[in-house]
Specification:
By secondary structure, this protein is an alpha/beta fold. The chain contains 21 helices and 5 strands. Helix 1 links the parallel strand 1 and strand 2. The termini are far apart.
């Protein structure tokens, strides 16, 4: 049985480490549910009530002066003493930076992040988590292949490429489409070319890894997932790459898999591990990357609902959110989509994505008062829970957090205009501009890198000047022009 769901309990300030971990575990099909906490008491409460996930990762609570050992709970819960804690530390170190130890279903991690050689630290951290989570003799194959996948993840510098690829989604953002700014293409410039090459190298390495007699589901999943990402980048290119490298600077060959090929591979993976929900979710996403297959995605979502029947649904709230988006896109049935977004928000009260979508549905039905409540909930969650409070700490916000904050501000601007609340509308447009600038600065990812490294400088240069990122500015400027407003 594969571990498929992890819950991360961590201080808001650890957002850069979270992004590194999320990209790796998502790549291998392991869902990581993120729960920022703001005190040791919050962390203890989260551990007591559980999250429905297979394993809890309690990350770096040292910021709350958690120096004498694990949390001490009252009642029937076991009390962990400092002496035991320090004894376990010796065999579970993360270089000279910290340690990770497991007790039952929880892995407790503490460290001091180095100022330089950060990628070396992150790789060691993920290795140590793999060692602690997949820690039995029965897990040996999965553990060893996850070690290899982690090595490849860092060798091919996938963190920056995956984060940049995530930003490409903004090319089809509704706010841009409404202003005739979206559905544009991107050029296969140096960074995009390097992205595709890195994805392709990872793909080929995982193909080679599958030549082993026995292969773990994580390896098969990562192979199919990176092929899906290559497909999605190709779809945005203004000029498709040439088949072979040419002397005049042409594009080297990159494996491009059809949706049918990937679905066939996912079928084999599903037969190998039918209880691994990531397989069905990836199949739905592959269908959604191919117009002729899009309707078939509904079948995989329904299979997902069958798979999680009887399980704690809190770990799977994202399925309800994604299915709501699918209904919204294919059926344009806002009321039906709203029910699934509401289910997601009920299961995960910190799902700012679900609250945002609920606001969109209500706004499209012209229920502006209700829509504003949902949008303000999304803003509050991002500000209070993920940023850590006021004033907003942009360095604690991931790119998706900032993007949703931007989109929420734009919707609030439109609602205020509809209600003739022009001063409020102008204020929200100003906030949207600030969010666009914060997205461009990308402070969270900046903290994940050594600022003097060549990889960061290349990523920073591309990110600041890429078409998707500059699109946020264009949205605000176009909105300003349409209303004769100015940014305060």
């Amino acid at each position: 049985m594969c571990v498929s769901t992890l819950r991360l309990i961590r201080p808001a300030s650890e957002a850069p480490v979270v992004e590194v971990m999320k990209e790796f575990f998502f790549l291998t099909g392991c869902l990581l549910c993120d729960k920022p906490v703001h005190s040791l008491k919050d962390a203890e409460e989260e551990l007591r009530k559980g999250g429905g996930t297979d394993i809890d990762i309690v990350l770096n609570l040292n910021v709350f002066y958690w120096e004498d050992g694990l949390p001490k709970w009252s009642g029937d819960a076991q009390v962990y003493e400092s002496a035991w804690f320090k004894q376990e530390w010796a065999d579970s170190s993360i270089g000279n930076s910290g340690f990770a130890i497991r007790n039952d279903r929880s892995v407790f991690v503490t460290y001091q992040q180095p100022k330089r050689k950060k990628m070396k630290f992150y790789r060691k951290l993920i290795d140590r988590l793999i060692f602690q989570i997949w820690n039995s003799d029965e897990d040996a194959l999965q553990r060893e292949q996850l070690f290899i996948l982690n090595r490849l993840y860092f060798e091919h510098h996938l963190l920056g490429f995956l984060q940049s690829k995530r930003a490409l989604r903004m090319m089809n953002m509704g706010e841009a489409l409404e202003l005739n700014l979206g559905q544009q293409t991107i050029s296969a410039d140096c960074y995009i070319r390097d992205m595709l090459l890195a994805f392709n190298r990872f793909y080929q390495d995982t193909v080679e890894l599958q030549r082993e007699t026995r292969v773990s589901p994580y390896t098969r999943y990562a192979n199919i997932n990176i092929a899906r990402k290559i497909r999605e980048v190709f779809q945005l290119l203004e000029k498709k790459p040439a088949a072979k490298w040419s002397e005049d600077g042409g594009f080297p060959s990159v494996t491009y898999c059809s949706a049918g090929f990937l679905l066939e591979a996912l079928g084999k993976l599903y037969r190998q591990e039918p209880q691994y929900p990531g397989t069905l979710f990836l199949a739905a996403r592959v269908c959604q990357s191919e117009p002729s297959q899009e309707q078939n995605a509904g079948y995989y979502y329904q299979k997902l609902f069958e798979t999680i029947a009887g399980k704690d649904k809190r770990a799977y709230s994202f399925i309800y959110y994604e299915y709501g988006r699918y209904i919204e896109r294919t059926e344009r049935n806002w009321r039906r989509a709203l029910r699934y977004f509401a289910k997601s928000a009920h299961l995960t009260p910190l799902s700012y994505q679900a609250f945002f979508k609920m606001g969109c549905c209500e706004a499209k039905n012209r229920e502006f008062d209700t829509a504003q409540i949902y949008f303000k909930n999304a803003i509050r969650i991002i500000w209070r829970e993920f940023s850590g409070g006021r004033p907003i700490a942009w360095e604690n916000l991931s790119l998706p957090c900032i993007q949703y904050l931007f989109k929420t501000y734009m919707w609030m601007w439109k609602i205020c205009l509809s209600l003739a609340k022009y001063s409020e509308a102008q204020a929200y447009l100003g906030k949207a501009w600030n969010a666009a600038e914060a997205y461009r600065e990308n402070q969270c990812l900046r903290r994940a890198y050594n600022p003097k490294s060549g990889h960061w400088k290349e990523l920073e240069s591309y990110h600041k000047n890429s078409r998707p990122v500059l699109l946020l500015r264009e949205i605000v400027r176009s909105s300003l022009a349409s209303t004769s407003m100015f940014i305060p």
